Amino acid sequence: MPKHKFNIVTSTCVPLPYDNIDTDRIIPARFLKSTTREGFGENLFRDWRYDSDGNLRPDCPLNDPRYSGCILVAGKNFGCGSSREHAAWAIADYGFRVVISTFFADIHRNNELNSFVLPVVVSEEFINDLFDSIDRNPATKVSVDLPKQTVTNLETGQSETFEINSYKKQCLIEGLDDIEYLLSHREDIINYENGNKF
Amino acid sequence: MTPKTLFDKIWDAHVVNHITDGPDQLYIDRHYCHEVTSPQAFAGLKQRGLKVFRPERTFCSPDHNIPTHDQDKTIADPVSRHAVDTLKSNASDNCLTYYGLGHDLNGIIHVIGPEQGLTLPGYTIVCGDSHTSTHGAVGAVAFGIGTSEVEMVLATQCILQPKPKTMRITVNGKLRQGISAKDVALYIIAQLGTDGCTGYFVEYAGEAIRSLSMEGRMTLCNMSIEMGARGGMVGPDQTTVEYLRGRLHSPATGEEFDKAATRWLALATDPDAKFDREVAFDTANIGVRVTYGTNPGMGIDIDELIPEPTNESEEKALEYMQFTPGQPIKGTPVDYVFLGSCTNGRIEDFREFARVVDGHKRSERITAWLVPGSRSVMKQIVEEGIDKILQKAGFELRQPGCSACLAMNDDKIPAGKLCVSTSNRNFEGRQGPDSRTILASPATAAHVAITGHL
Has residue B109 got a pLDDT over 90? Predict the structure, then answer.
């Protein structure tokens, strides 16, 4: 997975105004057979984007020529279901760098962070305003400023702060992953094992 | 000392480091691997020039990609075969225990862990699979992780994880006759929603939970993820101890086992411990449950009518399921029945299915796939003569694996067909593109299998 260094991302958006988008929809199980991390973007939302004959489904926002950009805006409980990190890889491989929702499923949220995709949790008010803006003007841009932890709808000027712990924020800004942290703490692990009672 | 929940006790005892304004570095006692979510982690490890840090703590079994027939032959699908072979060579390169296809101990990873006594009370357990929550049934902190985290465990036996909040779900009263753990799980999910427990780790408590067998507790804990919970657990009691006695990897019987049992029984939430959230339900309200939509929270009692959709997502779900609001779900003709998965693929589930179909015949309109969760379950089915009952009623047993739960192998429900499934997810296309799924208990599935309708 390319370790993008995050700073400020400003882009148009692709709206998916549906709740409970599960990881089976993001990447169906039959595409999980690959043993590498690459190439999953091709099958992102496969059965939503294509019908069984392989034709583009016109009702899928990803097929709508009006929408583009590296920010995905989705309804609440995004990424519920299976723990497959392939879902986050597919999102990244397709070209998204940020996903905005009011609510993410726990495992998927971790998977996005570990795949260098930034999950941004916003208020109900913010997302409704954003869906309205995109509806009125598909060229609506959003700016996500990680160092300042702010997200701004550039069409309406509405802005709010978002949560991310300072450890993970630093990892994203510097392009570091958790294994690097863990490997540098091997001695603590061995000390722990010597006292582990389970 | 401040009273603590069982979850807090186990979690806190496994924290190696706490990162200020960040996650905990958590030590992992047991790690399970299957072939879908591990190859990229092993590849990452290799790229870093590392070997598995604690090979004795990781156990591997291929389950998702494997066919449920002719397991003595090579896997026909070359991509599936490659995935399974990759797990085998990764296990061998790193000296990990591997239960390959056809091995006596092969099976769905969440079925074989408890049945071999690899899953023990007080443990932290992870696997690159959301249904790892199953193992919480013995009183362990068990949860699903992503592949990057699998790599962390392989490399260091630790992961970095924000500590979830705690929640207790109490189910008061005795379960009504014929009501199973699956009905309880589907009821709770319908009440709380598929995001009702997101951010929380759940402890199940109350008379109804205590009355469940270990298999029943596994079914309930398995479905914790479907309410959004990080995991679910049941505090160990005598049922837990008896279940673990004599298992392959449990402490040996005799003095060693008794000592372990005493330690396990001491693992309990303190009487005055505070949970971040408490919810209680009454068994009087829990009937035979089925789902009617495209997420596990869209469920009703079998006697209820299909509800009116409350938003666009629910409207889409009803359209997909070809159901009309106000229509009874009871009597709906069904095409397929699937008994199996890490939710309901254990011996108790096959006993229950056989009890219902005994003396009846499979309905001609039903294609039934009966898939044991493991080789051991399959063996026990034969030993108990359950296979004979099933055969007489016109059912065939398949070989173990995840099968039609997520249809990664050939066991796909055809487009448009309706399946009553004992698995855990009814998402659009989960059991095959455009297939339709109703989640239910093994007993309900058995009734459908002989009558042809709900």
Answer: yes
